[in-house]
Structures are given as C-alpha cells and as structure tokens.
Amino acid sequence: MVGLEGSRDVAWRAFITAHALVIERIERELADAGLPPLGWYDVLLELSVAPGRRLRMHELARAVVLSRSGLTRLVDRLERASLLRREPDPADRRGSFAVLTDEGAAVRERMWPVYARGIAEHFGKHLGDEEVEVLTGALKRVLGAAREV
Amino acid sequence: MVGLEGSRDVAWRAFITAHALVIERIERELADAGLPPLGWYDVLLELSVAPGRRLRMHELARAVVLSRSGLTRLVDRLERASLLRREPDPADRRGSFAVLTDEGAAVRERMWPVYARGIAEHFGKHLGDEEVEVLTGALKRVLGAAREV
DNA sequence: ATACACTAGTTGCTAATGCAACAAAAAAAG
DNA sequence: CTTTTTTTGTTGCATTAGCAACTAGTGTAT
C-alpha cells in the first residue's frame, strides 16, 4: 500500500501539486516585474474591499490565512513601505486596525495586471466554463468547512 | 476595479484559500500526532514509487516542486533521520541518488493514516464523485501545462 | 468589587526556503 | 582533441513563517 489510490487522494495530489507549480510561476513573474510578492497582494486586496479600507489585525490574519505573529511581521513590512498604517481601535485599546493607504491601493493596482495575467495563463486558460463553476462550488464548500473549525 | 471579478479569478481565490486552510489543518494534525511535516511525506512517497526506490536529486526536486537548494536541505534532514541515504551515481559523477531506507518506508506508512484522514476530513468529504472527476481532470491539465514551461 | 479566564498583538527563537555564487563534471561546438 | 556551455549539487546569505512566552486590556463569575 503506497497511499493515494483512492480517486479523492488522486484529486488531492493534483490539487497540491498544481498549486505549488502555479504559485511558483506567478511569484517569479511578479518578482521579474519588480513587484512585491503574493502575500502583499492578499493583504492589500482584503483591505481594499473592507469597509473603511481597514481591518483589525486578527481579522486580517484570518482573512489571509496567516498566524498572528506572521501577520504582525507582514504588516510591519507593508507599513515600512507606506502601503498601510496602523491605527488604534478606540473601542478596544488592545487592538489596532491596519488601514490601507492611497499608496497601498496604487501598488495593488499595479500588481493586478501581472497577477491577473499569471492567473489566466497558468490557471484559467486550461479550464472550461463548466469546470470553473464546478471548481468554485466545490472549493468554496471545502473552504467553508475548514473555516468553521 | 478591485481585481477578482471574473469567474476564473473567483475560482482562483477559492483555490488558493482552500489550499492554505486545508494544509494548515493537516500540518497541525501531523504535528499533534508526533509525525514529520508534509514535505517529508512528499519525498518519501516519490521515492517509494520510484524504480529502485531511488531518484536523482534534480528529479526529486522537480517531483516535489522545490528549488535545488531547498531540496538539498530537506534531503539533509531526512538523511540525518535515516529515512533515506545518498548514493553516488556511477553513471554521472556529479550527481547522487536519494535512496529510500526501510525506516523511511516505515515512517511513510505511519504517516499515511493520519494524512489520509486529514485529506478525507478536510477535502474529500466535501466533494461529490462527479466533482472529484472534474477537479482531477482540470487540475491535471493545469499541472501539465505548468510543468512544460 | 475582585478574581479569573480569555483575547489581541508583539517579540525571541528556531526552522524552512529561495537566490546567487561556486566547484566539479558532462555535453556540445569548433 | 580543445574550448565553451550547460548541468548537478552544495553553500552563504537574507527572507519569511510559526510556536511559545509575554504584556495589556477585556469580559465573566461569584
């Protein structure tokens, strides 16, 4: 018995390997274009769509699937680059908001074309419309279940 | 324009977020069971199914989607744990094989039940049979394309 | 009110990863 | 052949991530 005989295990293997390969390609394309890595994009995007362009640190950590300490450091880097700033939460003196700056929004907008091209070229291009629907539905279910725990 | 409006971009977002969450869960379950991390499993599995239980370093790096330097260090750790050993390649004096040991095979077999349960619980359980087929087909296409480059 | 438990965020530490540079060998070009 | 280019694997270095421990503030129970 060597593991991975079941059809779900084969799907899993395809899932993680495709992920690793495509991320590797896209990260390289961003780096080659002189742009920040994907982790930065995730933070900037979450802040972009958040009300008031701000999120509490723990909300942001959860949104981008990072440990609290990992997020502290990531936000440090983004703050040093002036792409966001920390602001105290008047309603809870323990916590702070991460607030998107205009410069942060601008950087996200400069990243998006490169990122979008990578997604299309290495991912979207190879999927039929029907497959996209199935994939989205299935993975959102997986995602929802994993978030609940 | 905030990015991620197209249906393929939504699918991509679900893809990477589901990946991050499920991997996080499974890594924790392995750690809680006192077992090595997923990266070790990948190496042990590739060697298990390779002819002669051996692969050249660069083949292994490609198989587990890791940089050459990353693989050098990962193999260092596995070799220190006696789960594999390096052997020179008589046909090419630059290179070496990574060869699975019996102990390495045994450790992989001890990891598999925990890993399999994680895959089922956090991934497979939420997918219908039809979805599994679509997912596998689609992702294998993505994977093949990314490998070609 | 006071004690107790929990949550938020940061820090020190360690582990893991990629890039660039390197040495050695092989392969290709001439 | 001899020279040049490429491949293979390792190393130094810098970056990034998580865990455990800590501080500070909040919430809850008695």
Blueprint of the fold:
The structure is a homodimer of 149-residue chains.
Chain A: H1 7-32, H2 38-49, E1 54-56, H3 57-64, H4 68-80, E2 84-89, E3 92-100, H5 102-122, H6 129-148
Antiparallel strand pairs in A: 1-3, 2-3
The structure holds a DNA duplex (30 and 30 nucleotides).
If you average the pLDDT of chain A, what whole number results?
Answer: 95
Order of helices and strands of chain A: HHEHHEEHH
List unreliable stretches of 5+ residues of chain A. Answer: none
Tell me which oligomeric state these chains represent.
Answer: homodimer
CATH fourth-tier homologous superfamily of chain A:
Winged helix-like DNA-binding domain superfamily/Winged helix DNA-binding domain
Give the count of helical stretches of chain A: 6
Question: Which class do the helix and strand fractions of chain A yield?
Answer: alpha+beta
Sheet with most strands of chain A: 3 strands, antiparallel
Helicity range of chain A: 55-70%
Whole-Å distance between the termini of chain A?
A: 31 Å
Rounded radius of gyration of chain A (Å): 18 Å
Total domain modules of chain A: 1
Order of adjacent strands in the largest pleated sheet of chain A: 1-3-2
Q: What name is given to the CATH topology of chain A? A: Arc Repressor Mutant, subunit A
- Say how many strands of chain A there are: 3
Please identify the top-level CATH class of chain A.
Answer: Mainly Alpha
What is the largest interface, and how many residues per chain? A-B, 60 and 60 residues
Classify the beta-strand content of chain A into a percent band.
Answer: 5-15%
